Amino acid sequence: MTDETLRAPAEVKYADELDWLESVDDGPKPYSWRLSPRMVRLFVLGSERADGLDRQIDQKWFGDRSFVERAIVTLASDRGLLLIGDPGTGKSWLAELLAAAISRNSTLVVQGTAGTTEDHIKYSWNVSMVIAKGQSRQSMIPSPIMTAMESGVIGRFEELTRSTSDVQDALISILSEKYISIPELDDDNIVFAKPGFSIIATANSRDRGVNDLSSALKRRFNFVRIPVVTNKRSEAEIVRFRTTELLRRHRIELEVPPTLLDILLQSFADLRAASAAAGSDDERLESALSTAEQIGVLEDAVLHSQFFGDRTLRAQTLAASLVGSLARRSPEDLAILNKYWHGVVEPRSKADGGEWPAFLDGGREAIATLS
Ligand SMILES: Nc1ncnc2c1ncn2[C@@H]1O[C@H](COP(=O)(O)OP(=O)(O)OP(=O)(O)O)[C@@H](O)[C@H]1O
Ligand SMILES: [Mg+2]
């Protein structure tokens, strides 16, 4: 599968690790969980020497361990889990890792949009089968959530707040009754959830207000707020880990020079500080300046140097890629970037030297082109 899939789900990508963890796991497991809570945490956060394992488990999600623990506890409880945070803070990735570790299936996903209907979270009908044979369980198409209920595994709901209140209401009954009834059928018309079923939903805090969650639904979820990573060391690790992975897809084995990674992290930290200090939205970059965006900037820069450059990542290319991805609104974002380049990059390039002068040039040129 891995050779033929653009992006394998976590349970496939880490199948080896999961098999191994399962084989050494002697902790008690809630319901039909494939791993004990401690092993789920270990899979997500990686192993430390103190764990005394014969095999090193890599860290996959970077963030405070308390979030991961609360998430795991929630999934063993009666409530669903709602991961909330800014775009690109790794909510979906954490949801995928948890579902993979607990259920070995992270693909039972419903995507919340304005067009999501109740059918998408309950069931629909295979029309030609209904015409040929009538309505029956065979002619029914279960939703991913219904499939998760029937198998006692984790179902996922992405971007919950984008769906309408009808859909949210249907979810309330699923989360409290733990069954779905099928009124069209005379018998065998209730699908009960098996133990182990739960839901991990994600919501983007910038979408707040699109469809506010009802208080009835809020009560059925435990909220875990995922903050933007601001610790430079963990952020460096996330960026390095993900970029290497993404580039492997292109069969590019490239070490990102540490000095350039530093410049990237420093620029994002500066721009975040400026955003936080800004008085109005016009003085703030539209971007959330998340870790995911840093990964995007770096990936673009590397690809650009592979396709059109001499295959070495240079500071100019990095600067151009940064400006290109952050300048979404013209003139507002460009003005902010221009101010940053004048006020921060220029003095730094004089004081620190190194790759900064090249970064200064690359950014200036990119800003001039876009203005
Ligand atoms: N804390 C983190 N640990 C590991 N990877 C992270 C982290 N934060 C972001 N990433 C990486 O950034 C990418 C984007 O993350 P993800 O799609 O999970 O964000 P999200 O919070 O769901 O964003 P959105 O609200 O836009 O859907 C992922 O590929 C992930 O690997
Ligand atoms: Mg997401």
From TrEMBL:
Domain of life: Bacteria
Pfam families: AAA_5 (PF07728)
Domain AAA+ ATPase intervals: 77-227
Protein name per Swiss-Prot or TrEMBL: AAA family ATPase
Lineage: Bacteria, Bacillati, Actinomycetota, Actinomycetes, Micromonosporales
